[in-house]
Design goal:
Residues 1-18 have low confidence and may be disordered. The protein has one domain: Porin, CATH 2.40.160. The chain has helices at 28-31, 161-166; strands spanning 5-6, 12-15, 18-21, 36-37, 44-59, 66-80, 84-102, 105-111, 115-128, 133-144, 149-154, 157-159, 170-186, 191-210, 213-216, 220-221, 226-235. It is mainly beta. It has 2 helices and 17 strands.
Length: 240
C-alpha cells in the first residue's frame, strides 16, 4: 500500500438507454491505498473515506415506477494481504422520492432522510504484473428502512406532512439494493481507469393510507439489472 487515494468516480450501468448509479469499490490492492496497520509485519490495514452516491430516476418494474435519492456518508475498509477487502458503508439517504403511474393516477411520495447502511467485499482476481492490468470482483448490499413520509402528491395536488399527521396517516417505506461486479483496471501514475459488467437489483416498497384510500406499491424491483460500467480513480502524491 503505497499511495493515498483520492477517488473521483463516475460509475454507471446502462442498458436500453437507461443509466443507474452503482457504488463500486475498487480493491485496495489496485488502489495502493495507505491505511492504519493492524497486525505487525502483515499487510492488514484499516482505512476510511467519504462516500456520496447519487441514485437518479432508477426505473422500477411496475406502474412505471421511478426512485431517486442521494446517499452521503463514509466507508470503512479492512484490507487483508493487500488483495482482499471487506467494508461497510454508513450514512443517510437524502431526499428519497418515489414516483408511480397507478390506475391513471400520478403519485409521488417524498420521504424524510433516513439512516442507510451497507456491507461489501472485493478482491483482486488476477494481477497481470507486466502490463499493470488487474481483474477484480466486488459485491455489496445496502438498505434503509422506516422512511417517514414528508408529502404525498396525487395528480399534481400535494398533501403536506402536517395534513398527513392531522389525518392520522400511517406510512412506511424501505429500500434494499445489492450488486455483483466483474471488472478490469489499468494503473497509470496518477489515474486508474476501470470498467466491466455489473448486476444490480433493488427491492423497495411503500404503503400510505389517506382519506380512506390506500396507496400501496407493494414490492418492486429494478426494471434493468445488468449492464456495463466505466469509472476512474485519481491518485495524488503520498504527502497530500
Amino acid at each position: 500500500m503505497r499511495k493515498v487515494l483520492l477517488a473521483g468516480v463516475l460509475c454507471f450501468g446502462l442498458i436500453s438507454s437507461t443509466v443507474f448509479a452503482s457504488p463500486i469499490n475498487l480493491p485496495t490492492g489496485i488502489k495502493g491505498q495507505d491505511g492504519v496497520g493492524l497486525i505487525s509485519n502483515l499487510p492488514v490495514g484499516l482505512s476510511a473515506g467519504f462516500l456520496n452516491d447519487y441514485v437518479g430516476e432508477r426505473d422500477l418494474n411496475k406502474a412505471s415506477g421511478k426512485a431517486s435519492f442521494d446517499m452521503i456518508g463514509g466507508i470503512i475498509d479492512l484490507s487483508i494481504l493487500n488483495r482482499f477487502d471487506v467494508y461497510t458503508m454508513l450514512g443517510s439517504t437524502l431526499s428519497p422520492e418515489f414516483k408511480f403511474n397507478n390506475l391513471g393516477n400520478t403519485e409521488k411520495f417524498d420521504f424524510s432522510d433516513q439512516f442507510m447502511w451497507g456491507v461489501g467485499a472485493d478482491a483482486v482476481i488476477y494481477d497481470w504484473k507486466d502490463t499493470g492490468i488487474q481483474f477484480f470482483g466486488d459485491g455489496n448490499y445496502r438498505e434503509s428502512n422506516n422512511m417517514g413520509l414528508d408529502s404525498l402528491t396525487v395528480n399534481g395536488t400535494t398533501i403536506s406532512s402536517s395534513q398527513l399527521a392531522a389525518a392520522g396517516v400511517n406510512s412506511s417505506a424501505k429500500w434494499q439494493e445489492w450488486q455483483a461486479v466483474l471488472g478490469v483496471s489499468k494503473k497509470f501514475q496518477y489515474v486508474i481507469p476501470y470498467g466491466g459488467v455489473v448486476y444490480s437489483d433493488v427491492r423497495t416498497s411503500d404503503k400510505v393510507t389517506y382519506s380512506g384510500t390506500t396507496y400501496n406499491s407493494k414490492s418492486l424491483s429494478s426494471k434493468y439489472k445488468v449492464g456495463p460500467f466505466v469509472a476512474f480513480s485519481f491518485l495524488l502524491p503520498r504527502w497530500f
